[in-house]
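Worked Example 4.2. Consider the chain below.
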Amino acid sequence: EKWTTEIVVSVHYWTSTLISFRTTRSCGFRFTPGQYARLGLAGAEGIDVWRPISVVSAANDEALEFLVVLIPGGAFSEALGRLKTGDTIKVEKRSFGFLSVDQLAAGRDLWLLASGSGLGPFVSIMRDENVWRAFERLIIVHSVRQASELAYREEICALAASRKLAIDAAQLTYLPVVTRDAAATTLTSRITELLSTGRLEKAAGTKLNVMTSRLMICGNPGMARKLRQLLSTRGFASSRRNAPGQMAFENYWQDHD
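Applying the procedure from the previous section yields the following structure tokens:
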């Protein structure tokens, strides 16, 4: 078989449509933080529906963790919405994707820009000790519509606080962005606007620099396209074969059906 059958060990609803869940993990499943897995669930007619979902868990975690937005009427979302502890889910044996730190040229500051469930792969990256040794600063920007959608906020804040005491490890700056509730966060505009106006760099307390800054982007396709344009005009380039670049993008959008 191309997949293994895993057992759901927990399901957490951040909101009515944003969930994370953990499953058992085959001893043969390997992935690099930032990559995604292909998951299969039985659809309404008993036919398996497969979707790519980024892995949230650390590479050495005994379980697999995923963050997903449920889309009303979506075949995969409908099946996922019925998921409960003890149910089974299929996981392809291979991992996929190139949204990983090893695709980037060496740098000093790592910027992780996410919207919605695009935060998922970056949580996995932050859970990787090698990343903290490879950079001096990690800057994570998570844009959502409502404050309730700021998944993993407590974990990220706790991580930022604990790293302040760490020796010879990167420091973490967390910049949550809520666009539809002006009172929820200091930053309330879309990431693209924050970048183009300079407010993002001001909030982070550092400038984007082609020589030292590296960026990873995962989220809404419109946001990704605009960020690629903005960053390209400032000299940032995506990685090519045998030519590591300064920015990397997830090529699929997981807020789907």
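Residues 221-233 form the longest helix (13 residues). Residues 25 and 61 are 9 Å apart (CA to CA). Compare this with Example 4.1 before moving on.
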